Amino acid sequence: MTADAAAGVVDVAAGAVPLAHVVRGGVVESVHLGHLVVTAPDGSVRHALGRPDVVVWPRSCVKPVQAVAMVDAGLELPPRLLALAAASHNGEDVHVAGAREILAGAGLDESALRNTPDVPLLGEAAFAWRLAGHGPEPIAQNCSGKHAAMVATCVAAGWDLDTYLDVEHPLQRAVRSTLVRLTGDAPDLPVTVDGCGAPLFATSLVGLARALGRVGGAPATVPGSAEARVAAAIAEHPGMLAGTRREGTAVMRALPGVVAKDGADGLFAVGLPDGGGIAFKVLDGSGRPRPAVLVAALRAAGFDAPGLDEIAATPVLGGGVPVGEVRAVGIDA
After folding, report:
1. How sure is the predictor about 9, in pLDDT bands with cuts at 50, 70 and 90?
2. What are the DSSP calls for 272-294, one per residue?
3. What InterPro entries does UniProt report for this protein, alphabetically (predicted)?
4. 263 SS3 class
5. Count of other CB atoms within 10 angstroms of residue 5
6. 3-class DSSP assignment, residue 79
7. Residue 4's pLDDT band (cuts 50, 70, 90)
8. Which of 22, 76, 179, 306 has the fewest Cβ atoms within 10 angstroms?
């Protein structure tokens, strides 16, 4: 038993394997370890590296599932804003304006938000935000669309607004119930607090892939459901889910119908139109290998399109010019 196990800490490192090599001048300079799983439409495991059953904090990869729970609880938004409700957005003008529109539609303003104040994720957007005299604010933080949708859901359902982030609030109980239903995981996995202040419920990696697969496949299998509405909104407005220069948005534009959602600390999850799913965790939390691993996993799942090579390309520079690349390893179709 490891010291972490003895202390009751889940050891995500156990059983991790290489997901990507960083190659410089023909030499493997660094290795990114992790876990990866590709599920079939019936939720069974098609491909796995490391431990598909490893317990992870899914971070923002669960936002499409949170959006499903909110729609089931009575949230009504047009597709453009429903996609934003599932977003980790860049803080571009369209994202900030959309979050304000969600609030206004519920008769609320920015004072209702309880997410962590921040500046926009995208460098140019952050510069413009600062230039306009703003500092860190909840509306600019990448989760503001989700939080605006959460308080709008509370208005629709008649739930208390001030306590919407409490783990026992009806909204958060609904999120946990939906997550358990879509992942197939046990309901007693750990809970903590995410970076934005919302409750964060643990999942297995394979459960996360199943959940996103059930969202991605819903337009074909359960049309009209909350899952189908969320998937259709994201497919119609992929730029609202992330934005400029984000690999998830680029993949969704290359492969219409795919739901591709990034998360902090090296997480990524994908729902496929056939109901299959992908989830992986980069052990060191780095985003550097994610594009290459994501594209390799999509191809292993049978999905390819022009432009994926460009999305996967992560050059290693020397003197400002490419002298190597980040390569996914071990993921074969």
Report:
1. low
2. -TTS-EEEEEETT--STTHHHHH
3. Asparaginase_II (IPR010349)
4. strand
5. 11
6. helix
7. very low
8. 306
At 10, the pLDDT band (50, 70, 90 cuts) reads confident
The answer to whether the beta carbons of residues 95 and 147 sit under 8 Å apart is: no
Q: Could you count the other beta carbons within 10 Å of the beta carbon of residue 26?
A: 7
What DSSP string runs through 129-182?
Answer: HHHTT--SBGGGSTTHHHHHHHHHHHHHHT--STTTTSTTSHHHHHHHHHHHHH
Distance between CA atoms of residues 223 and 221, nearest Å: 6
What is residue 95's DSSP assignment? H
Tell me the domain boundaries of the chain: 3-328
Close Cβ partners of 203 (under 8 Å, ≥ 6 residues apart): 55, 56, 58, 62, 179, 183, 185, 189, 211
Q: Which helix (H) or strand (E) holds 32?
A: strand 27-39
Identify the DSSP state of 118. B
Topology of domain 3-328 in CATH is: Beta-lactamase (3.40.710)
| Whether 271 contacts 277, CB under 8 Å | yes
Q: Which residues contact 312 (CB under 8 A, 6 or more apart)?
A: 291, 292, 294, 295, 296, 328
Bridge partners of 38? 47, 278
Euclidean distance between CA atoms 93 and 29, whole angstroms: 39
Question: What tens digit of pLDDT does each residue of 21-32 get?
Answer: 999 999 999 999
Q: pLDDT confidence of 8, banded at 50, 70, 90?
A: low
Of 210, 237, 229, 284, which Cα lies nearest the Cα of 87?
Answer: 237
